[in-house]
Amino acid sequence: MENSRRSFLKKAGYSILGVGAGSLLIGVIPKFATAAPEQTASKYKSRPEALKANRWGMIIDTRKINRRINRNMQQACHRIHNVPDHVGKFGAKNHEIKWIWPTPFKNAFISQDAQYLSDHLKNTEIPVLCNHCANPPCVRVCPTKATFKRESDGLVLMDYHRCIGCRFCMAGCPYGARSFNYRDPRPAIENIEPNFTLRTIGVVEKCNFCAERIARGEIPACVEASNGASVFGDLDDASSDIRKMLAEQYAITRKPELGTYPSVFYII
Amino acid sequence: MYDKGKIVTGLVIFFVILAFPFWYNRGAMAPSPELELTDRAKQAERCIEDTAYMTTEHMQLLDEWRNAVVRDGNRLYVSEDGTEYVASLSDTCMDCHSNKADFCDRCHDYVLADPYCWDCHTYPEENN
Questions:
Q1: Is B69 domain-assigned?
Q2: ipTM score of the complex?
Q3: Chain B residue closest to A149 (CA)?
Q4: How far is A6 from chain B (nearest CA, A)?
Q5: How many CB pairs below 8 Å do chains A and B form together?
């Protein structure tokens, strides 16, 4: 058989054309095949009793805060969320895990000039927690999307299944609202609350604004335990209690210069 | 063919070694586990979906549940027959299947599955 350069080049050309057309088809066919709408989406819905909002927020009235309310708020939160007490149990201050905790005013508001602070703010610590920022830096830095902002209500939440413990979010959060599980949390939990999960060693955790209670139609545990010193509501709804309070009284947020737009406000 | 004897002997030895797991474990294989249902589970007769589906696909369902609940906040699951269930491992599954050791673990141990559900999620005996 005569195999000239000419016939070889011809065959090679046709082969390339064929392969090219074939791979084009492979790319196009599955798109038609999977065009049918997925029906799984309708299998899930939110509970009818769940509280609804576009952007959850909280006001803490520092004038009403005292040591006892601080303690009640923290205990209520940490008990129902299985937050381990490494400090109380083992004196491991470096491994402390906290979702909400009292801190001196000058530490919470470092950009405020704390000269000649009122006696009340000098003597009383104020509760701080995750601010559930509208522009959360922790969400931007998370490499696995374990921390995400829930579009439906603006809560900044964590999917502990996805957390790989890289702690970028702890570096990203300007409020120190996140804690890392350096050790197994189980031995440091007095009574395990069966209605909520625990965490494992190697994941970060933080306040979830009681997303599980909101889903059941209840307000956050700290607000309930605050004896009226804090209010919870929809920042996006001008007729909500929280917006009415903000309209009447001047309130500040922590580190506003960073542009994170916290959803936790403090009335001074 | 040269060295026919050596080659055939070698091949026989090779296949005997290849089949080592089969003849070594002959007769020693554990019987497949019998799952024990709690009285509540027996009375219900049907799990949230068909038993066959639940046996083979429960892990996919739980995976869907966790994304629906954790990420979308959709905490209700509507099953094929239209019944609504709270999508929760600890509250819904373990409410009926409260015998983790005889229900979950038996199969998981048998197939060497080691799900990390229980690192964080609680189950009934643990709570007592």
A1: yes
A2: 0.77
A3: B71
A4: 45
A5: 63
Cα separation, A108 vs A33, in Å, equals 56
Beta-bridge mates of residue A61: A267
Identify which of A83, A97, A100, A99 has the alpha carbon closest to the alpha carbon of residue A182: A97
Q: Do A197 and B121 touch (CB under 8 A)?
A: yes
B71·A148 Cβ contact <8 A: yes
CA angle A212, A215, A218 (to 5 degrees): 85
Name all domains of chain A by residue range, CATH numbers in brackets.
56-267 (3.30.70.20)
Q: How many domains does chain B have?
A: 1
Using a CB-CB distance cutoff of 8 angstroms, which residues of chain A are in contact with residue B70?
157, 159, 161
Cβ–Cβ below 8 Å for A211 and B73: yes
Which of A47, A152, A161 is opposite residue B66, by nearest beta carbon?
A161
Q: Which domain holds residue B75?
A: 37-127
Distance CA(A228)–CA(A213), nearest Å, equals 18
Q: Give B88 to chain A, closest Cα distance, Å.
A: 10
Which pairs with CB-CB distance under 8 Å and at least 24 residues apart come from A213-216? A213/A80, A214/A50, A214/A51, A214/A56, A214/A153, A215/A46, A215/A47, A215/A50, A215/B73, A215/B75, A216/A47, A216/A49, A216/A50
B121:A42 CB<8 A: no
Chain A: residue whose CA lies nearest to B123: A194
pLDDT (tens, 9 = 90+) of chain A, 268 residues, equals 567 898 899 999 999 998 888 888 777 766 655 555 445 557 899 999 999 999 999 999 999 999 999 999 999 999 999 999 999 999 999 999 999 999 999 999 998 887 899 999 999 999 999 999 999 999 999 999 999 999 999 999 999 999 999 999 999 999 999 999 999 999 999 999 988 999 999 999 999 999 999 999 999 999 999 999 999 999 999 999 999 999 999 999 999 999 999 999 999 9
Q: Is residue B78 part of a domain?
A: yes
Q: Rounded to two decimals, what is the model's pTM? A: 0.81
d(CA A210, CA A76): 11
Bridge partners of A59, per DSSP, are A231, A265
